[in-house]
């Protein structure tokens, strides 16, 4: 009996001796896995500095409108051109971004974009006339257009499958943060000082790009096998086994190279037409609902409605960041289509409230209620947009295009998006001069049509593979 107990004790001791190093090794592996992703997270942070710079450019014109018009003596038409020419530059950037990113790499494209943004900010800072202001705004817009393409592509290409969704949502969140910070600090700084602040994320990005690796998928596509494996190992950790992922990437690149190169006219073939209609249609819904007109001139809208512009802009900016973060967290739970429908409904309500504020003020029905209606309308509007219509169209666009047309189709959808942004930002002041409440009724009508479009045309892509999405689109 004693011998049996000794044997059991011996087995337990041996078991403990075996388990102890295994547990320690498992803990060490778990800890090292977190450490292994430091370069991945650093690379993502550096890239989204471009998203922040994007947001800083977009948010600049709202808090600076009155000061710039007074200091440089700009007319309403001249300031409308200054505000909207940003999106014209972004259209040019969107058209050329794919070629630049393919030719000189994702990092190279971000360097070019940062250079244009920094030059644009300096031109605005030193401007004493409308010409230098417009040149600076155009240059910054070009940088924005390149950033809008290359940042999400870079993040998607460096991220592993298990964290790609979480990392890609940082892109729209940082863009929104850039807009909001510009709104808030624009109430405290002069317009020239705010232009200098816009250079900061560009400088951080340029420094960071000297540290982080290039996209391994781009390197593989260029046939740079040694650099490809080195980049992938840096992103996954020096001790990580990257052989399986490297093989998958090589297979993907080989499949991509075998597919026919799509051209713009190919998008109008019957087999691609539904995907293109969904992708481009969502961009039309997003932009022609008035978001850039409202966003670029938030301060003047609050001022016109009789609400303190500084306070309204600050509340608007903070709400935008909070709702965008919540929307990013729920996009894979609630589904794309429900978020778009809820968002569109909120946009219609926000437009009705904001339009009502100008209506009662103009006709003297209840002038005391105008400021409350205005702030309620704009906050509902920005909250609804941030919850769905802001980010979801970009997510759906990345899911619905077949792999062989995604580059051309994505460029077309991005171009339409920026054209809509330009059209809304340029016409907004003229529409407000025509009819303040009529402007918001017009935007509300577009958002109502957007709800119909989403319900009738847009498929739900939540929880489906890309192949299942394509099958569903083709079958309908």
TrEMBL record:
Domain Major facilitator superfamily (MFS) profile: 43-462
Bilayer topology: Multi-pass membrane protein
Membrane-spanning residues: 40-61, 81-101, 108-127, 139-159, 166-185, 191-212, 272-291, 311-331, 338-360, 372-396, 403-428, 440-458
Subcellular compartments: Membrane
CDD domains: MFS_GLUT6_8_Class3_like
Main subcellular location of this protein, as a coarse class: membrane
Family annotation (InterPro entries): MFS_dom, MFS_ERD6/Tret1-like, MFS_sugar_transport-like, MFS_trans_sf, MFS_Trehalose_Transporter, Sugar/inositol_transpt, Sugar_transporter_CS
Keywords, in A-Z order: Membrane, Sugar transport, Transmembrane, Transmembrane helix, Transport
Classification via NCBIfam families: SP
Protein's UniProt name: Sugar transporter ERD6-like 7
Organism, scientific name: Salvia divinorum
